[in-house]
Structure formats: C-alpha cells, structure tokens
Amino acid sequence: MDAGTVVRAVFEAFGQRDVEAIIALATDDVEVWAIGTASEAGRAEPYRGHDGLREYFADVAAIWRRLEIVPGDLRIAASGVVVFGTAHGETVDGAVHDGVGVIWIVRLEGERVRSLRITPTTSRPG
C-alpha cells in the first residue's frame, strides 16, 4: 500500500468511526496529537498507542455531537503525507465549528501510521 492509500484509508475509517480499522493501520506506539479535540477535552498531551487511539475516539464521541473532516489537497513527502482540508462540527454544548481549515501531518513507518498531528489553521468562521 502506498502512502496516499494508507492516509485515505485512515480518513475513511475515521468517517465511519472505526477505531479498529485505524489501529490496524497504526504502529503499536502511534502518537496522535489532535489539537482541537484535545483542547476541548482539556488534554495537554498526545494520545499514545492503540489505547490512546481508543481514548481519542472516546473523546470525539463525548465532545462532538457532529464532526466531519473533509480532506483536500494531499501531498506526499519523504517520510509521510501532509493533507490540507476542513472540519465541520458541533460540540455537545452547541458550539459550532464549521469550515475550520485543518492540516493533517501523517508520518509513516513502512505502511503504518507512526504519528498524526491535526492542527486547525483557522478559527470558526464568522
């Protein structure tokens, strides 16, 4: 599987909230720094390992009433992939975050995700 295929599979699995599919695509010591969700959860450090991925999905379910990610331009680099896109969501307390620019930086180890950094590039429009 090439890098682009791996990353697209991760996006598809996230859209289906299939944590086990993402775990199958990740190294045992994967590190995910999802800044938006972590901030909403009051978390000050990345999610680590397969249990960390499960914690991340639990936080997504607890924080977001609706969360859709829309990947756009995908650029393959030497050790990973950079994806530019947007996120659309609403927290359980009603805060709307639609059209937020996002950059996903995915580092790969072979055909598996070693790290993922998700960074909003714009705040909520309005």
TrEMBL record:
Residues in SnoaL-like domain copies: 7-113
Protein name as annotated: Nuclear transport factor 2 family protein
InterPro entries membership: NTF2-like_dom_sf, SnoaL-like
Pfam families: SnoaL_2
SUPFAM superfamilies: NTF2-like (SSF54427)
Cross-referenced Gene3D superfamilies: 3.10.450.50
